[in-house]
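Handout, section B. The chain below has 194 residues.
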Amino acid sequence: MANQNQSVVRVLSFSPGIAVTGWSIIDYNTTNDKLVVYRFGSLKPANTAGKKLHSAEIEKYGKQLVSLQLLRDAVSDLVGTYHPLYIIVDDTPLDPRNPSAYVALVNWFCAIQLLCYNDFDTPIIRVHASSESEGMTHQPIYDQIHDNKMIHFKQKKQAAILSHSEATSIHCGYYFLRDHYPSIVASGDILTET
């Protein structure tokens, strides 16, 4: 399972949300300690579910279930296209003091965990991506991403068009790679491409 010579580690990280989920593909070069944001985007399954195309499904199963299925399909496409070694999810938004949001986000986690368990045999690593991780400050998330010398974008113009959820997903991947991945490597339990 361990491959100490692997020089690039690809992660797919998410900033889950009820209406919008930010995602990013980050390649971490362990040789030069450089993170490259390869791709990023947003998923909006509730908007898609609200379209006339899904009206019969919504009437039969409800908008929440159809939204979760659309989310599952979109995440399946991302995993199948980019083949990440790790899937990281920011669990910061899980706040039980907001019951309706909490239930929706728990459903989000369960749908994606089942997908990864059943279809990809890849565990989801949940992290609480504090803005105080090494290299991050209390400044707005966009500025934290742009000012961080370790984070680079495959295409420079991409950095200028980040949404909040996309920036948060990049921060989540950065946090995992800087604060969690080193302990995974030290334990010898790193994943390798199959």
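Note. The chain has one domain: 8-187. Compare this with the example in section A.
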